[in-house]
Backbone:
């Protein structure tokens, strides 16, 4: 007996409609692709690890793991490789994020970014700070998107601060 056959059929949607349907809309760099070693079907899951760089909609996260079917025949986002910069449209699937070919995940370009900004407003830009990149005298602005507290700043120093809190960053933006 032959295994069940799969085919993908998507309703044509605009970028704005795809963004409205997604719980997470972001730009990111694919930093890992974990394909099953011995897939039994095109519907087996691939895990894409994505380092987010801009978020239009969804939780603030530096990295997300996104599941998708192995092949586009099963609506998977196949063709996305490590190092690719993508427009990510994903929804929660239990504890994981999931994206399909129909959701709109694709290589990012200027037109997609403009469409997303028109539909959802300006994105939150994420710039990961690596401690090794900091030097004495650098100013760091802290912004906690879900907090009502004002933004704070800190100046990198080689001296102890005596436990003083960071100074409020009046008028500063991230």
Residues:
């Amino acid at each position: 007996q032959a295994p069940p056959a799969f085919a993908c059929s998507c309703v044509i949607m605009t970028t704005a409609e795809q963004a409205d349907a997604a719980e997470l809309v972001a730009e990111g760099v694919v930093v890992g692709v974990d394909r099953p070693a011995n897939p039994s079907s095109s519907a087996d899951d691939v895990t894409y690890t994505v380092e987010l760089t801009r978020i239009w909609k969804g939780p603030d996260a530096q990295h997300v793991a996104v599941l998708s079917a192995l092949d586009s025949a099963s609506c998977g986002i196949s063709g996305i490789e490590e190092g690719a910069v993508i427009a990510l449209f994903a929804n929660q699937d239990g504890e994981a994020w999931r994206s399909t070919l129909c959701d709109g995940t694709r290589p990012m370009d200027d037109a997609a970014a403009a469409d997303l900004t028109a539909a959802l407003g300006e994105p939150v830009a994420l710039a990961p700070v690596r401690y090794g990149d900091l030097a004495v005298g650098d100013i760091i602005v802290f912004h906690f998107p879900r907090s009502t507290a004002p933004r704070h700043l800190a100046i990198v120093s080689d001296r102890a601060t005596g436990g003083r809190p960071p100074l409020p960053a009046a008028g500063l933006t991230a």
